[in-house]
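Homework help board

Subject: predicted structure for assignment chain

Our instructor gave us this sequence and asked us to write out the predicted structure in token form, then describe one feature. I got the tokens but I'm not sure how to describe them. Can anyone check?
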Amino acid sequence: MRVLLFDIDGTLIRSGGAGKAAMEAALKSAFGVAEVRDRVAYSGRTDPGIVRELLDLHGIEPADENATRLEAAYLAQLPGMLKRIRGSVLPGIDEALRRERQGAVVGLLTGNIRAGAEIKLRHYGLWDYFPFGGFADDLLDRDDVARRALAEAERHIGKRVDAADIWVIGDTPLDVQCARAIGAKAVVVATGWHPHEELLACNPDHLLPDFTHAGELLTQWGWI
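My token output:
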């Protein structure tokens, strides 16, 4: 049984920056920050890590209570930002997910907290394709999210999964890194913010321009 673990932002969807805009609006509404300093990297990161770095950067104690407050404000802002900022499902994703699969299951491996992931994917009509996932709630390290995703996959299937049968599909070097943390293979699609040369340098097993080029892999994975 192959397990295919998909990242969200830059891999399944491009939100047009709605997530970042929602986080910055939340910082203003929850803590009265007048001007947000644009010094925090979002790509490939976990929401809890971003939240704590934003708090610290703006002179707010990055304690659990403040992190929870910012996350709640972010979730309140996110639906409106997704409606306001035009985004899209990335090429080849919708078509692939609609196809039947034999001998493979799909799940999520994302730096999003679960509630944020659901809001985003429901907005784009993709949430119901993924029966399980590893989310970043209470986790700062993407490698730990990968371990959580693997545990959720085994719980979903009802048995242990051989590392050789796990594929992580993402768009950043951190997706490759977290795949290696669980012994998985890594597929990178160049649909995010990282240049081709940087993605190639992290040595993924496959590098695709976008998911419309995944035909041979889909056959290998048992997608009809």
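Reply (TA_rk): Your tokens look well-formed. For the description, you could write something like this. The two ends are 15 Å apart (CA to CA). That's the kind of observation they're looking for.
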